[in-house]
């Protein structure tokens, strides 16, 4: 039997042990996956880009027509209390809002009381070995639903996609739809071409990662060209560098794709110079963009 972390959680105004938290079996989050979530990094006990995470939470809730049960100040208070309950300096806060309990019906019920849930755990950041050598990825067709812009708890497609790479001993699954890159199962994907960082433009098929705007800022600070545009599958397989970004990965180099080395020349199969500069810039941004 899998043991849950021995941490405190927040659930609908109450705090208590995570293992003892209970919601109704008729909660639409349980029945339909009818809810949204966020994962907020915490560095040195301070929340990283909290405002941006709250903005995205509001966007996702609005698209599902779920009212936010807490104000921004209330969410901040909840997060800080959860952080204070942990001994780790670096943490991850997971928070989730579902439409709440109601009789089972596909139609969105009116006057449903949302369920608000959150907990914090010590962060497990990428290892020094992963940063030094890079990580392996596998490619696959993007078979998920077409509203990837909503950070929904309905993640079965992402689970199936991630399992493809897990079965292959790789860290992530890079997804392609109609011959173009979308994202990975739990990450945004970037490529480097001739020193420029290229990412996928905003659309309903991809999540607007918090690190998208962050990497734009970091590229500007580092003098690295930055562009969001459609990226053909062939461009990914011939890229100079491939990077992943997410709350849990920060920015991470991909050095093997479908069992073949990424890159060219002396840097083939090794983390590249754009990754190195962005990683250092990311570390410098942590204390400056945390509250």
Q: Please, could you describe this protein's structure?
A:
The protein is of the alpha+beta class and 291 residues long. It has eight helices and 15 strands. The strands form two sheets. Strands 7, 8, 9, 10, 11, 12, 13, 14 and 15 form a nine-stranded mixed β-sheet that branches. Strands 2-1-6-5-3-4 form a six-stranded antiparallel β-sheet. Strand 3 (35-43) and strand 4 form a beta hairpin. 37% of the residues are buried.
Question: Keyphrases for this structure?
Answer:
29% helix, 291 residues, globular, alpha+beta, 15 strands, 9-stranded mixed sheet, 6-stranded antiparallel sheet
Mean pLDDT, all residues: 96
Give the count of helical stretches: 8
Which band does the percent of strand residues land in? 25-35%
- Unreliable sequence segments: none
Which radius of gyration do the C-alpha atoms yield? 19 Å
What is the general shape?
Answer: globular
Distance between the termini: 37 Å
From N to C, what is the helix and strand string? Answer: EEHEEHHEEHEHEEEEHEHEEEH
Structural class: alpha+beta
Count of distinct strands:
15
Largest sheet, strands/sense/barrel: 9 strands, mixed
Helix content: 25-40%
């Amino acid at each position: 039997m899998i043991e849950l972390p021995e941490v405190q959680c927040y659930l609908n105004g109450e705090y208590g042990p995570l293992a003892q938290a209970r919601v109704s079996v008729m909660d639409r989050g349980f029945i339909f996956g009818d809810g949204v979530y966020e994962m907020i990094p915490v560095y040195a006990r301070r929340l990283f880009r909290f405002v941006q995470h709250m903005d995205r939470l509001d966007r996702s809730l609005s698209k599902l027509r779920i009212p936010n049960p807490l104000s921004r100040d209330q969410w901040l208070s909840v997060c800080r209390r959860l952080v204070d309950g942990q001994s780790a300096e670096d943490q991850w806060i997971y928070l989730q809002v579902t439409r709440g309990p109601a009789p089972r019906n596909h139609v969105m019920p009116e006057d449903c009381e949302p369920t608000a849930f959150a907990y914090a755990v010590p962060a497990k950041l990428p290892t020094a070995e992963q940063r030094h050598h890079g990580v392996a990825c596998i490619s696959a067709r993007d078979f998920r639903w077409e509203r990837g812009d909503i950070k929904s708890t309905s993640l079965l497609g992402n689970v199936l996609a991630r399992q493809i790479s897990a079965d292959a001993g790789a860290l992530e699954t890079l997804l392609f739809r109609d011959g173009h890159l979308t994202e990975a199962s739990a990450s945004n994907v970037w490529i480097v071409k001739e020193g420029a960082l290229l990412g996928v433009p905003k659309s309903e098929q991809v999540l607007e990662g918090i690190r998208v705007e962050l990497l734009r800022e970091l590229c500007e600070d580092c003098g690295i060209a930055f562009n969001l545009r459609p990226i053909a599958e062939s461009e990914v397989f011939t890229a100079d560098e491939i990077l992943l970004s997410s709350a849990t990965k920060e920015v991470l180099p991909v050095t093997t794709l479908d069992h073949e080395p990424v890159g060219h020349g002396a840097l083939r199969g090794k983390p590249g110079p754009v990754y190195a500069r962005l990683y250092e810039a990311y570390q410098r941004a942590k204390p400056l963009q945390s509250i």
